[in-house]
Amino acid sequence: MKNPVLNLLFPICCIVSLYLASASHARADDWGCQVILCLSNPGGPTEFAECRPPVEKLWRHLARGHSFPTCSGVGFHSSKPGYEPYYCDDGYKLVGRYEPRGQEATCISTSLTEVSRTLCSFDSDRDGSSGGSVVFPRWERVNGHSRCMAYSITRPNIRSQPHYVDVTIDGSGTHRVWY
Q: Which end of the chain is more exposed for a tag (fewer CB within 10 A), N or C?
């Protein structure tokens, strides 16, 4: 059985290779098209040395607040630049919550885990948290026994490149580009 993604990506890679081979002859107004071709590379936008200069120029361009470059004749559109400084490990989701110091981001596990029975006592915090390591502790019936279960929390990771733009390229899908 053929993989439809590979069937789609092979022609794109061939076009990218041919275009990049002639990139030294490209005009200045082709920069947007170079960027689109590089972004459509399944190996990443800077996998090929020829893609690094136009993509790095894109990152600088977007970081200064400029819009995404255009490329006539190619079906694509891009989102406005976004900012997402934090991310969570697998099995956790990023949420914001309000603390006395202001809004903070935290990672909360997506599944319940068994925790110390003391966390399910009646004197735990009324907001659903207990001691800063778990949230929403409660008694659950597991295999016929009562267990204290909760969602664990952890600090989020900080992105080295927190700005992004989503680029949708016809025939290649949507790519989130971090810069």
A: N
